[in-house]
Design goal:
6 strands, 2 helices, single chain, alpha+beta
């Protein structure tokens, strides 16, 4: 089963906000999360003990990032592609 949910968002001050319980939900359920900012869109999933984010810019795949937590994914992706 595939489902989409916006688990990561950027607030007006460009701080990443992670929905409470999102990390556990992604780790325990076969779903995709969505992370979007001004310059990119990312699809997030949990596999093999790590979080992965497929990043798209200008309607094309740009990179797949991997990290140990959602906050780490947000940091890696935002550092490379910019924040909201």
């Amino acid at each position: 089963m595939t489902n989409f949910g916006s688990f990561l968002e950027q607030d007006i001050d460009r701080h990443t906000l992670i929905e409470p319980g999102a990390e556990q939900l992604l780790a325990e359920t076969p779903i995709l999360g969505f992370y979007a900012a001004w310059n990119f869109a990312g699809y997030i999933w949990f596999e093999a003990g790590r979080f992965h984010c497929e990043v798209w810019t200008d309607k094309a795949w740009a990179k797949t990032a991997t990290a140990d937590s959602l906050s780490d994914i947000a940091a890696v992706v935002s550092a490379r592609f910019g924040a909201a």
